[in-house]
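Exercise 7. Given the components listed, write out the predicted structure of the assembled complex. Treat all entries as one system.
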Amino acid sequence: MAGMHTTFAPLQNDTFLRACRRQATDYTPLWLMRQAGRYLPEYKATRAKAGSFMGLATHVEYATEVTLQPLERFPLDAAILFSDILTVPDAMGLGLSFAEGEGPRFAQVVRDEAAVARLAVPDMDTLRYVFDAVTSIRRALNGRVPLIGFSGSPWTLACYMVEGKGSDDYRLVKSLMYARPDLMHRILAVNADAVAAYLNAQIDAGAQAVMVFDSWGGVLADGCFQDFSLAYTKRVLAQLKRTGVDGQDVPRIVFTKGGGIWLPDMKDLDCEVLGLDWTAHLGKARALVGGKPGGPGKALQGNIDPNVLFAPPEQVAAQARAVLDSFGTPHTDRSTTGPTHIFNLGHGISQFTPPEHVAALVETVHQYSRQQRARG
Amino acid sequence: MAGMHTTFAPLQNDTFLRACRRQATDYTPLWLMRQAGRYLPEYKATRAKAGSFMGLATHVEYATEVTLQPLERFPLDAAILFSDILTVPDAMGLGLSFAEGEGPRFAQVVRDEAAVARLAVPDMDTLRYVFDAVTSIRRALNGRVPLIGFSGSPWTLACYMVEGKGSDDYRLVKSLMYARPDLMHRILAVNADAVAAYLNAQIDAGAQAVMVFDSWGGVLADGCFQDFSLAYTKRVLAQLKRTGVDGQDVPRIVFTKGGGIWLPDMKDLDCEVLGLDWTAHLGKARALVGGKPGGPGKALQGNIDPNVLFAPPEQVAAQARAVLDSFGTPHTDRSTTGPTHIFNLGHGISQFTPPEHVAALVETVHQYSRQQRARG
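Answer.
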C-alpha cells in the first residue's frame, strides 16, 4: 500500500487528536466540513486549472494544493483529504461525473436484481489516486495538523447508487428498500466492506483519523435508520484498523446529518467521536453520550449552522460563543479522559460564504474556548 | 363571517375528533396529508378544468369537489380543506403563483427594512374564497367526517416570504434571521397574528379542527427553533378560538417536520395534538408527551414514511402494522381520557403514489387497530 512504510514529520498541533481521544486541551480545536472549497478564490483558481471536480480530486498535486489552502488562511486544527464521498461507487464501475452547476451523477444505476448481483467490493488499486493524495497531503502538511480521511456511509452511497443523483424525496432508494429489503441489504453489505477497505487503505497511506459521512441517514424512518444505516456503519467500524502508520491510534468519527434524534442508538457505536448537526443541543448530547471524567464516552463534533457565516462578524462571534456555551466547559483534567468538543459546522460550508467571516469564527472559537477553560 | 350562523348536519363519524381529545375509539382513525392531490386521476381532471392550482384553490366548487374525492375512494376519518399554506402571504400582497412543474413563487420578497415595514395582517375579506370553501365543504360533507382547517406556521410562511420560493439551504431567510433578528421577529409577529385571524375565520366558517404546518421548522438550529418558530406557533395558539360554530371544542394540531428532536420543548404547547414525521418513534413520543389515563397529555398524529406507499400492498400493510405497534395499544377506557393515536403519513403523499396502495394502507390501519384493541 502507498505510504505503508513512509515516515512522516512529528505532529506539532495535536489538539484535534487529543480532543478525539477525550483528552484535555488548552482550547477547543476546530475544522470545517468542506473547508477546502468554492468559497475560497484560490480553490476556484486551482479548480479552473484542473478543468473539472474529478480532475481536481484525481490529480495528486491539485488535491494536495486545495487541501492545504484553508490552512494558509486560517489556523485550523485539522486538514481533511480533498475528495468526494462517491469515489467508492465510482470504483465499482458506476461512472461518476459532475455536470457543471449540478451535483454528482452516475452513468449506471443499481435498481434491480441483476445490477445488485453485479456489485462487488472494488479493487482498491482503482482508488490509488485517493491513497496517493493522502500520502502527498500528509507529507505537505509536514506535521502542522493531523489529516482526516473519510468516506460516505454505506447507506449514503446506496442513495446515490440507486437514485443515480441527489434526490428531494429518496423515492427510488426507499421504494427499493421497502419493496425488496433483501436487495438493499446486499447493496449495503458490499458498500460496508468496500468502505472499510477504503478507509483502511487511507489509514495505511497516512490518515490520522477517519470520518464516515452518513449524509442521508437522517431521511430514514425510525427503525429503518437502525437497520439500513446504523447497522452498516457498525459493520464498517468493526473492520477498521485501530493503528496508523506511525503506530498511533486512529480516531473514528461518525456523522449522521439529521441523526440527533437517534443519539441514544449511537451511544454504543464503536467509534470515538460523534458529529452533530445544528438541530442538536450540544449540552444535552454531552449529557447523553459525552461520559464522565475517567469513564467511557464519546467526543462530540459540531455543530454551528453554516448559514451563521452570512451574518456580520459580530453575529458570527456571538453565535460561535453560544455553541461553545451550549457544550459547556470541556473536561480540563490532564490526568484522565472526559467530555470534549471539536468545533465544526453542522454541515459543509456554503460556496457563498465570505472568507473573512470564517476568520472571525476561527478566532472566536480559539479565544473564547480558552476563556471558558480559564473561568472553569 | 361566512358560515357564522350556519347549521350543519350532525357528525356521523367522530373517531378523529375523539382521538384528538384523547378519548377512546373503536379503531385508530386516519387521514393523509395532501390526501386530495395529484396521485388521484379524478383530482387531475378537476385540476385541468380549473386551469391552475390557484384556480382550483380559489374556486369554491372545485375546492369542494377535490376535497371530497379521496373520501369517495377510501374510508378516511377526516377531510382537510383543499388550499395552500401560502394563501396568507399572498393576501399580504406578495403575489403567489405556481409555475407548471415548479413549486410556489412570490412576485414580491421580504428581505429588507422597507419590505418588512410594509407588512401587515391582511384584511380577512381578501381570503373569503378560503372561508367560503370551508363552509361549502362542510355542507358537502354532510356530517360524514369532520373537516380540518389549516395554515402554514409563522416561520414556514417567513421562509417563503424571504426566499421568494422553496429553498435547499434557506440561506436568505437564515441570513436575515442571524444578521437582523429584529426584522425577523417583526415578520413573525405579523405572520402569527395573521395566521391566528385566518384560522379563527376558518373555525367561524365551519372548520372542526385546525392544524398548523410548521413544514420548515426542522431546518432551524436548536435555540433558533424555540425563538423563531415555536414562540410564534405559541402566539398563534394563544389567539385561537376554542369553540366552533356548533359549540363544539376545536382541537388544534401542530406539526413540525423534522421536529422530533424538540418534542420535549413541544410538550407544554397549548394544543391537543402533535404531528410527527417518520424519524420519530411513536412509542417514545407517547412516553414523553402522550400522558397517562386521566392525566394531561397530547394525542399523537403520524407517522408512516410516504415512500412506503411505493412498495407492494403486503409491504404497505406490514409497515402500517409496525407503525401501529410502535405506538402500542391506545387507551381504551371510555370513562376517562388517555394516550391516543391518529394515523397519518409523516409528510404529504407523493403524486406518484398508486391509489390501490393507499387502499391497502387504510384497510390495514382500520382492521389491525381493532385487533390491537381486542388483544388489549
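Discussion: Chain B has 15 helices and nine strands. The mean pLDDT of chain B is 96.
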